[in-house]
């Protein structure tokens, strides 16, 4: 967003055209400039001939003017003051636009800006301000939020506040042993220390400073100046007398450069040509030597650098340090150290925006050497043993290849005060595919294919791996997790996908453990695996299989294919094409079994095409069975139907239990139509009456209530009737209520003991009972008096009568049991007369009667004989009389 930009210089507002200068920058800077061209002191004119020959280099340094000045300003971004570590690059120009650059660039790296305010000390050298000509200061800044330096526009116009005289060309004070009088004017001294342009022929030119320059060239018709310690040999210049100090009078090294300025730079190595060049080349061939040793010892908090090297060539090196010793001792391609509380042992800086550049390249060929050893000795403050930075989008601030990398203490990425061994506030991508994406809350961890992603504003997301081109894993809600696979999408908070492909966990706490194209679209829904499964309501679960659906609260499908747990708390354990629609319904398995919406807590254990359509009903298995009434049960079989409440069918085929609490144990084609009726089995039996029973058989019918029919074509047509049919293929039916009817063409036997030794029998085709009377089955024999039995029989009252349970028209004859018991004491008690006892008494009485008859017969025979004799006598007498 373009916003107005105002610069102020010495309190004077700049023209309004400055306001449109940041069309491609977010950075907005207001630079309140208070330019103090400090210490541009006037140097009094001196005679060149009056400088003593013994003046030292230190004396000359003290006589040179301080050309530094302080630049202060305020840095704003979008109207807000900046607080950050900022790199500054400042250049001096002779025009407001384009023009020529004056002096060398000034770099202030890592300057701490607070509330937008900054203060920089700059020094462009003695030639920067040669008179009253104006100069323009160009400022480029790089903060932690910038990807490349931002040049602030327009340039700032600055000028010296006082006239500047660096040298007096003619003066009553001599600067050399030769007389200055009559000599040509000496030009301003260059950076390289070469002598200025020769004057017109005159007196002897001034001597070079002792030890402070190369051999002076011979002027026109002049004698050669005295030679110093520097030696010029063609294009080479060298110094062999001892140590050379720059910024110090007591150098301890062959070349030692120091800068006492708070923002100064001791040495700048700058390779500006377009080839493969080196800003600084340091070489140590000794066993423990140092190719380049830079030390920043500034005691203040200002930025100081042990070494600062820059290459602006596309293939250049800001610094190239090699420890080439192949020995076993420690050697260092570069050793850089900062003792300042905010110093940097080394800072490598690449300002080129293109090409393969290196802020610093260090190499060691020693087996125990260090390509780069950086050390910040201060034990407090914000110091940097190594500070590397690149502004190129293709550059590397740090590039480590091969071997092992070791970091001791806490490592911060995107944060300057790490609190953990590895602490990052920016995204982290590992070569193996891992990425860390920091957010204000829990960071995102992303692995696998590079296209795996967490949506914007998501935190706590995890993608453990997987993914492929065109089928990335995605997390689009906080705390969601995708562990692997490809094409998976965890799209709601705390949802989880463990793996598989094309799975979707689309509600909070939903889980898909694996498989293919599974969808958990409700809170706490779970799919363990399989494919094309859908868990679409709270706490719904699909354990696996294919095309299964759990679409209500707490519904469960354990596996199989195309199963549907639609009712709340419903469950389908497996199989194929099964439906659990009723509340709390259960289908354990099988094929195409169904519990409809009315089947609350109904159960189908398995089988094929079974149906449970009412509450608490059960089909255990089989095929095409149905339990359609409350609590009805079909245990198995084929095409059975339990349509009465609490009716039960144990199995068989084509059975129908249609009454309340009816039971068909099995068989085929059996039917119960009324309450409490039972068919044990058989075929084509029908229990019509209440509590009717058919144990089995064929084509039996119990149409009366409380009836019993069994066998073949037994027909219990009357209430309470008991009908038994033998194998004869013909009906045998009851003819009265509570009648006991049996057809047994092989006879009927009743045994009254476990050994089948006592009882009665109706023989086949017979019409009476035969009682067991085998001598071998009797004991405790006693002889009786038949005549006594006869006399007792004759004494028992005999009457005719009818039973109270029968119509009074039905008459019977006989004694009373009490009289019989009183006369004979036979039978179980005095209330019943056993037919065996009645028969025995009758037979015994007959025997007694027979004895009496025989006696009477004998007596009659005797009487007859006597009569005959008498008749003979009478006849004889009559005959005699007749005669």
> Whole-number average pLDDT?
79
Number of helices: 4
Q: Mind telling me the C-alpha Rg?
A: 64 Å
Low-pLDDT runs: 1-58, 162-190, 202-226
DSSP strand content: 25-35%
**Can you summarize the main beta sheet?**
19 strands, mixed
Q: What is the total tally of β strands?
A: 73
Distance between the termini: 193 Å
Q: Outline, from the CA principal axes?
A: rod-shaped
**Content-based structural category:** mainly beta
Quaternary arrangement of the chains shown?
single chain
Helical proportion, percent range: under 10%
Give a quick precis of the structure.
This protein has 883 residues and is mainly beta. It has four helices and 73 strands. 8% of the residues lie in helices and 27% in strands.
What does this structure look like?
The chain is mainly β and 883 residues long. Among the domains are: 8-158, Immunoglobulin-like; 242-406, no CATH class; 749-781, no CATH class; 785-883, no CATH class. The protein contains four helices and 73 strands. A hairpin with a 6-residue loop joins strand 29 (435-437) and strand 30 (444-446). Helix 2 (786-795) crosses helix 4 (835-882). The radius of gyration is 64 Å and the shape is rod-shaped.
List descriptors.
19-stranded parallel beta sheet; 883 residues; 27% strand
Helix and strand layout, with pairings?
Blueprint: E1 8-9, E2 12-13, E3 27-30, E4 32-33, H1 57-63, E5 69-77, E6 80-81, E7 84-93, E8 101-113, E9 117-122, E10 135-142, E11 150-158, E12 230-233, E13 236-239, E14 244-246, E15 255-257, E16 268-271, E17 281-284, E18 293-296, E19 308-311, E20 320-323, E21 335-338, E22 347-350, E23 361-364, E24 373-376, E25 387-390, E26 411-413, E27 422-424, E28 428-429, E29 435-437, E30 444-446, E31 453-454, E32 462-463, E33 474-475, E34 481-482, E35 489-490, E36 496-497, E37 504-505, E38 511-512, E39 519-520, E40 526-527, E41 534-535, E42 541-542, E43 549-550, E44 556-557, E45 564-565, E46 571-572, E47 579-580, E48 586-587, E49 594-595, E50 603-604, E51 611-612, E52 618-619, E53 626-627, E54 633-634, E55 641-642, E56 648-649, E57 656-657, E58 663-664, E59 671-672, E60 678-679, E61 686-687, E62 693-694, E63 701-702, E64 708-711, E65 714-716, E66 722-725, E67 732-733, E68 740-742, E69 748-751, E70 759-762, E71 769-771, H2 786-795, E72 799-801, E73 812-814, H3 817-824, H4 835-882
Parallel strand pairs: 1-4, 14-15, 16-19, 17-20, 18-21, 19-22, 20-23, 21-24, 22-25, 26-27, 30-32, 31-33, 32-34, 33-35, 34-36, 35-37, 36-38, 37-39, 38-40, 39-41, 40-42, 41-43, 42-44, 43-45, 44-46, 45-47, 46-48, 47-49, 48-50, 49-51, 50-52, 51-53, 52-54, 53-55, 54-56, 55-57, 56-58, 57-59, 58-60, 59-61, ...
Antiparallel strand pairs: 1-2, 3-5, 5-6, 5-9, 7-8, 7-10, 10-11, 12-13, 28-29, 29-30, 69-70, 70-71, 72-73
Helix pairs in contact: 2-4
